[in-house]
Amino acid sequence: MNTALNELEHVSLGVMAQTLLHSQALPLQAWRNAEQINAALGTAARHAWVVRRWLAALTRTGLLRKEGERLGWSATPLDPQVGELPRLYAELGFPATMARLHTQVIECLPELLRDQLTLTHLLMGGGDPVKVLGAYQHNPFTAAINQALAERARQVSAAGGTLRVLELGGGAGCTTDAVLAALQTREKEYRFTDISSLFTGAAQRQFRLEPGMQFGLLDLDRSFSNQGIAPHSQDLVIAGNVLHNARNLPDCLGQIRTSLVDGGTLLFSESIADNPAMLTFMHLLLSPPADAPLRTSDEAFMAPDAWRLALQAAGFELLEVWPAASEPLAAAGQRLFHARGVST
């Protein structure tokens, strides 16, 4: 499996290089800085950070070399073997739809970066976007993270007789499904939330027969209490691969801490570093909307030590990061974080 991951990374780096070469954003023998490369590519301002992450990845692997702020090719990059994507995704346990979608996105990358086309439009063209996102999340890596999260959720005690659970950014419900199975015998009030009614509606159809379920919209960047989440009302907050979307992470973590009882539990999963494959695919969804402020940092993801500091500043103690870096599952770059609210 790790071999397939490495091959997928190699193909994706080749796609980045090919896009820069074929668009003449960075020709062979030329030297340009990131701003010039984005200008030559015609990148929309909201996506400029993606290209800068490409340049960092290509430099890190030695395909580009840097002199001051300018970048140039170390050698002529080989054309990527995009035709290998179906085999690689299959070996990694993803459904076939993911290879088809990634191939389609690669073919349209210049147009996507220029905002002549949006990734959401491509995903909608692939069918029900809830099912598309679910397919993306149906892989052994995410499944293992969700199962580990669910096992820890089972061990959370309730301040009263009923376990009160708030899920943030529930999306296609993959994390929800695992946690509800773990809590099957527990008396619970489970509030599924997402910023999109597309996902809350799909979750309501999927989980409507589950006892104690509630569904509602919630924006990570607004006051939780103004959105119906009372202070100190939750025993457990769950967030599956969503907290990186918060525009102001310290404020978001503060809102989560306020919503929890003292000693309450926060369980969340996150990627901890760039993934070259996703930089040519799903990471385009991390760009801000066209009418929103630009990203303040090109770094979309944080290392565990940075999460520890951010959680501590918000009133949490980080109890566990899983899996350990030495474990084979860690190669996918996803981690489960288990934190507890410190009593005030």
UniProtKB/TrEMBL annotation:
- Which GO terms fall under biological process for this protein? methylation
Q: Which SUPFAM superfamilies match?
A: S-adenosyl-L-methionine-dependent methyltransferases
Which keywords, in A-to-Z order, does the entry hold? Answer: Methyltransferase, Transferase
Q: What class of enzyme is it?
A: transferase
List the InterPro entries hit by this protein, alphabetically.
Answer: Methyltransf_12, SAM-dependent_MTases_sf
Domain called Methyltransferase type: residue spans: 166-266
**Transmembrane stretches, start-end:** none
Q: What GO MF annotations does this protein's record show?
A: methyltransferase activity
Q: Does the keyword field hold Methyltransferase?
A: yes
Domain of life the protein comes from: Bacteria
- What EC number(s) would the UniProt record show? 2.1.-.-
Say yes or no: keyword rRNA-binding present.
Answer: no
Official protein name in the record: Class I SAM-dependent methyltransferase
Source species: Pseudomonas khavaziana
